[in-house]
Design brief:
By secondary structure, the chain is an alpha+beta fold. It is 35% helix and 20% strand. Strand 6 and strand 7 form a beta hairpin.
């Protein structure tokens, strides 16, 4: 939907009865506040919003467009210095910051916006410097609303936040482990979902979705049929019977009449990598390894077809097994990976996994962290909340 709502259960609170009770008790405020989510993410963000309102003059100042350092280095840092002063990262007592002070302020700003603190004004940093304090207030409010849709979370779970490009394992309201992820490109966004990780698969085979095989792989096959064999793809006909790729006249195949299925064998070059984490969902998206690790070094990592590519998947698999209290499975995992064997390791207790879209949250020190609204989902929600 326009506002990217969570898959959530219907609110079971009888609102009319609750309001009548509050009126009878002459205590509407306390009763209403008691209905708020009790999760730490909501309470922390609510507290941070209160501090933001108390400490910041929430104006609608029109900030100038900051060019990137490649476009105009001198003007870029000049305007950035002015914006950083406006946001409070450069103190008013400093009349003209030297280069060290400017770099320190810029790096702090980048950390607070989920960006690599490299001191360079790239397009994402330039974009973040453009939002004024009122727009930031609206962003906080929008994410408080998103968190109100959330049902109570269990003791242990995996949590993917798309805008922060992270998968966190949460244990008793504490983040026990963090992993970088690559999420869906804006043209093929990662969907929101609630599920549970049922098994880990080593050296998985990749059943290529038709949208990828017909639209992206077919042109490569037409120009060089050996592309399939070189990359470990088997070809199946419409009846799911294995066929020889050389027996097909690919020049006569188009997107419209494409009626084949591609399957990539397990291995290091497989698009799923050497580990895959399965959870049931109607979107056919999963968490998996990837042979291409370079994008994990970027701060904005929206490059996939919708699946979540995971950094350091072996560490994640080992942690899941430890959490599952299945010591034998850890030895099995190491053995399977060493022997390059394709096999499923079932979870004795499936771990809940939540894929969400939060563009503003707090860190462990209760600082507000703003993220790039990579799918442009904030605007619709803000309009809905503040339409009057």
């Amino acid at each position: 939907s326009t506002v990217y709502m969570y898959p959530h259960t219907k609110n079971d609170v009888a609102l009319a009865d609750t309001l009548l009770y509050a009126l009878a008790q002459n205590n509407i405020g306390q009763v209403m506040l008691g209905m708020q989510p009790k999760m730490w993410a909501y309470r922390n963000l609510q507290s941070a919003m209160e501090q933001y309102i108390d400490s910041v003059e929430i104006d609608k100042k029109q900030l100038p467009v900051v060019p990137t350092y490649k476009e105009d280095s001198l003007l870029s840092y000049e305007l950035a210095s002015s914006a950083l002063r406006y946001f409070g990262f450069i103190h008013d007592t400093i009349s003209t910051p030297d280069s060290a002070q400017l770099m320190s302020a810029l790096r702090k700003f980048q950390v607070r916006h989920g960006l690599n603190p490299d001191g360079k004004i790239g397009r994402h940093t330039a974009r973040a410097l453009k939002k004024n304090k009122h727009e930031r207030f609206l962003q906080i409010a929008a994410n408080l609303e998103r968190l109100r849709w959330e049902s109570n979370l269990p003791k242990n779970y995996a949590y993917v936040n798309i805008p922060s490009f992270e998968l966190n394992i949460v244990d008793n309201d504490s983040v026990a482990k963090k992993h970088r992820v690559i999420t869906g490109h804006p043209s093929t966004p990662t969907p929101l979902l609630t599920s549970a990780i049922e098994y880990i698969e080593t050296y998985p085979r990749w059943h290529v979705p038709n949208s990828i095989s017909a639209n992206e792989m077919l042109p490569k096959v037409k120009s060089d049929v050996s592309y399939l064999k070189r990359n470990g793809y088997a070809v199946f006909d419409k009846n799911r019977q294995l066929i020889d790729a050389d027996s097909v006249d690919w020049n006569k195949v188009s997107k419209q009449n494409f009626n084949f299925f591609f399957q990539q064998s397990g291995g290091y070059s497989n698009s799923l990598g050497i580990l895959y984490f399965h959870f049931s969902n109607p979107h056919a998206v999963y968490v998996h390894d990837t042979p291409n690790k370079s994008a994990f070094g970027y701060d904005v990592r929206a490059y996939s077809h919708g699946c979540m590519r995971l950094h350091k998947p072996k560490e994640f698999a080992q942690y899941l097994i430890e959490l599952d209290e299945n010591k034998a499975a850890k030895d099995t995992l190491n053995s399977l990976l060493h022997s390059r064997i394709s096999k499923r390791i079932m979870m004795e207790t499936p771990l809940p996994i939540y894929v969400r879209y939060i563009t503003c949250q707090t860190d462990s020190a209760s600082n507000l962290i703003f993220y790039i609204d990579i799918y442009n989902k904030d605007e619709g929600l803000i309009k809905m909340l503040f339409k009057n």
